[in-house]
Amino acid sequence: MNGIMSNIGSSHSRKTKGPSYSDDRISSTVSRRSRRLAVFLLGIWFGGILMIGVAARASFRTVERVMAERPEVVDAAVEKLGPVTTRDILRYQIAEANRMMFSIWGWVQVALAATLLLLLLFLSNAGRFSIGCTMLMAALAALSNFVLIPRIVELGRSNLKGAGSAERFELMHAGFSAFQAAILATGLLLLFSLFRRRDVSSGRSSRGAGIL
After folding, report:
1. pLDDT for 201-211, tens place per residue?
2. CA angle 192, 194, 199 (to 5 degrees)
3. What are phi and psi of 198, to 5 degrees?
C-alpha cells in the first residue's frame, strides 16, 4: 500500500513540475552526436575568424611596407607612374583581394550559422540559452554579410576617390572586426553551454538544464 501511494505521489510531483524545455525531445544518442557536430562547426568558425582577422590586419600595412621597401618592380613603377599613382594601384589591388576574401567568408558564416541553428533546434536537446546564443550568432553573421561587407567592398573600390576614403575604409574594417569579436565571444558561451549539458542514460533531464 505504501509503495502504491509513493508511486502516486511521485507521479503527481512530476505532473506539477511539468516537463522541462529539454525533456527528451530527441533521443540521447542523436542529441549527443548533434552536439559533437555543433562543436566541430564552431571550431571551423573560430578558426576562420582568426585567419580572417590576421589577413585583414596585415592588408592595411602591406601597401605602406611595399612602398617603403621599394622592391625593384615597385621602384620601376614609381619612376614611370609616380608614388601617388603607384600607391593607389596597390591599394586598389588590396581592396579587390579583401573584397573576394570577405565576400566568401560572409557566405561561409551564414551557412555555418544556419547549419548550427537547424542542428540545435531539430536534432538536439539544446536549451534556451544555447539556442539564443546560436540565434545571436546567426543575426551577427547576417548583418556582416548583407550590410557591413558590401559597404567595405564599396569603400575599398573608392579608395582612389578623394581624401579620407582610406580612413573610412579602415573604420569599416574595425567595425567588421568588432562583429567578428562579438560572434567569437557568443560562440565561446555556446561552446561552454554545450559542454555543460550531459545526457543521462535513464532519460532524465541533463545536469544544468535549469541554466540552459
Report:
1. 334 444 444 44
2. 135
3. -135, 125
- Residue 108 CB contacts under 8 Å (≥ 6 apart), including other chains: 48
Among 36, 22, 38, which residue's Cα sits nearest to residue 203? 22
Domain ranges across the chain: 28-196
CA distance 32 to 1: 40
* Domain range 28-196, its CATH number among 1.20.120, 1.10.10, 3.30.1330, 2.40.128: 1.20.120
- Alpha-carbon distances of 204 from 131, 210, 212, rounded to whole Å: 20, 13, 15
198 beta partners: 207
The whole model's pTM is what?
0.72
**Chain position carrying cell 544518442:** 29
Q: What share of the chain is helix, strand, coil (3-state, %, to 5)?
A: 80, 0, 20
Instruction: List phi, psi (to 5°) of 207.
Output: -65, 145
CB neighbour class for 67 (10 Å; exposed up to 12, middle 13-18, buried from 19): middle
Q: How far apart are CA 210 and CA 212, in angstroms?
A: 6
CA distances from 17 to 10, 26, 198 (A): 11, 20, 21
Secondary structure element (H or E) that encloses residue 61, with its range: helix 28-69
Structure confidence by residue, pLDDT tens digits, 105-152: 999 999 999 999 999 988 888 888 999 999 999 999 999 999 888 887
